[in-house]
Amino acid sequence: MSSGMRAINSNMRHLYCNDPPTTRLPHPVYEVPSVPPAMLTRLVRWWQHYRASALRIQESTWQAIEASLALTHHLDAASRLRLRALALAFLNSKQIHGAHDFEITDTMRLSIALQACLPVLNLGLDWYDDWVGIVVYQGDFLIPRQITDDAGVVHEYLEPALGEAWEGGPVLLAWQPEQDRHDGVNVVLHEFAHKLDMRDGVADGIPPLPRKIGRKRWQLAFQRAFENFRARLDSDDEALAMDPYAAEHPAEFFAVAVETFFGSPDWLFGDYPDVYELLREFLGQDTLSGRIRNVPMSSTYRPRP
What we know:
Elements: E1 3-7, H1 37-54, H2 59-67, H3 77-93, E2 95-98, H4 106-117, E3 133-138, E4 141-148, E5 154-166, E6 171-175, H5 187-197, H6 215-234, H7 250-263, H8 265-271, H9 273-283
């Protein structure tokens, strides 16, 4: 199982193992007629929409959370309403838990949901339908690691992290007070960008792409930008606005590029215009101009399972 991690420089799989015991029904069990997959999908979406519509969030609450998220500056009124609806549907399809008895407030849930749904505003929640859990830590957390040296000796250590995403598994997030957050770093966007990348089963910086973009075009532009960024980082270029963690791996470069696309779009467009253009086409959002591709979710591109 591959993972995408935001480190600072798992005990992951035991988090959702509390399956309810199987019991035998005391009454006869009748055969249920099969339901066509397309119909079942529509029923599930209707139920999620019904549950989401039952939630009532005050306008003042929405505005307070959005005011704390500069990432949504490019959204017009209609797009903000769509993002809110998507966030509610997201919360109805995911389970958010606090690690080590960390209490998760409704405001925190809404903030996480809005940030997580921003990249898929025009892609749709289908991109997140292969996993369920989100675990939130109070501040940085430690992840046990193993490495084997050239002599074959296994070394175990604990690595501090701000977040981690597992393919087909949970997303781990560090929740920090606003005054303790790192400049230019958005852990939620970063880890959910990894989730987009992992939809094809591998975290390589190349998410499933529509035909209009094409894998070769994406790979060439991102590889050139990645190599250029690493060279500039080695030369101590002080004009870099992207987190240096982007130099670790192409998958990390993609995740940080998504952060920068929403957080510092003018810099990304100026220094890596090809990367900006590809993200604009892929996500259907222009964070510089504010143009949003407002299209029905039924016509958005969906990843192949």
